[in-house]
Amino acid sequence: MPEDAKAPDEPREPQSQIARLFDIRLMVGAILVVYGAILFVKGLFDSQAAIDKGAGLRLNLWTGVAILIVGTLMLAWMRLRPLRPPSTDESPGDEGPREPVA
């Protein structure tokens, strides 16, 4: 077994967990789900005047459903394809920092 391979029961690297916490997909997905839920609930209790204003459609309800779907897709995308921390190995063309040319 290679030396750098980790056993499945070992804890994950803290940097990987921190990177996953600050994944932009989490923030955007969570905000969209919250806003979508608010609009959905508001759409359930729309007044007749609000429904008439939307040409007979419950716009808050359907907009809330659409935003909920997009937010859920963002969260699913984050869950199915998590961020991978950059490898510590240098890439073949990377020699390190370059000095400026005068």
Report on the architecture of this protein.
The protein is mostly helical. The chain has a domain at 16-80. 56% of the residues lie in helices and 0% in strands. The protein has four helices and no strands. It has helices at 14-21, 24-44, 48-53, 59-80. The chain is elongated and about 70 Å long. The termini are far apart. The mean pLDDT is 79.
Our measurement of the CA-to-CA distance between the termini, rounded to an integer number of angstroms, reads 50 Å
The overall pLDDT, averaged over residues, is: 79
Pick out the low-confidence regions. Answer: none
Number of strands: 0
- Tell me the Rg in angstroms: 23 Å
Query: Could you spell the SSE succession in H and E letters?
Result: HHHH
* Biggest sheet statistics: none
Count of discrete alpha- or pi-helical segments spanning 4 or more residues:
4
Q: Strand pairing plus helix content: what structural class?
A: mainly alpha
Shape: elongated
Strand percent estimate: under 5%
The proportion of residues forming helix, as a percent range, comes to 55-70%
